[in-house]
Amino acid sequence: MLSPVKIGIRRNQRTPGVSSATAATPPSLRTASGPLYRLADYLDQHGRHDRADQIPPIDFWTAAAAHAHPADLAALGNAARARGLYRDAAQLYKHATTHGDLNASANLVNLMHALHPADHRPAHHAARYAAVNDPYTVGRLLDSLWEAGAEDQLRELAGRAARHTPVDGPYAVSQLLDSLREAGAKDQLRELVERVFAAGLFVQFVKFEEGGEFRFGHEPNGNAAAPWAWDDLE
Fold first, then answer.
1. Rg of the chain's alpha carbons, rounded to an integer?
2. What is the pTM of this model?
3. Of 11, 87, 113, 128, which has the fewest Cβ atoms less than 10 A away?
4. For 213-226, how does the pLDDT look when each residue is reduced to its tens digit (9 = 90+)?
5. Within 13 Å of residue 98, how many CA atoms lie on the same side as its CB?
6. First-last CA distance in the chain
């Protein structure tokens, strides 16, 4: 990636008061799109070997935040965070979150809460843009919101998840149900449990349904089965 060099400003320093995405992008290009490039395989392998222990300069991270493909933003954020570049990681996570990446959303909330516990704006951003198409990652984001104490954002996301998250994967659905129960979202949990029952995920339904009415299973007509024991088996 290439980024312009500002005259009078030394390389590998941030521009005060300017966001990383803006600083890396000339005004004439901030709303434009151009061709994408991929490094040749042999150059990629050479760079991975010889530069594995080197941290790219600020120019790289600001350019990445401004121009990287949305699908790559979370991975770049993880790379920045692993190297202690928390500001760059947060910027990349923020952009990835805007594109609906739930794992990046959870990482953003966790990182910003650790630095600024009283600021719930990252949680609001995450909840606002969160897609609810994957129950496992929705559950992970709910966990992060709960740990951050972002109750309003948690309730809003929990409500959307209960109504719209697909319930076709038993393991992932169980994770989401666990997250809702852990967060104390009783109404949303109850709503999702009803959808789980309608979808035929009875094992998950029994684990989370209230009252234990279906402890002994249900009849083909959907009614709760009467109690039975070993002596009832032929």
1. 24
2. 0.71
3. 11
4. 777 777 777 677 88
5. 9
6. 73
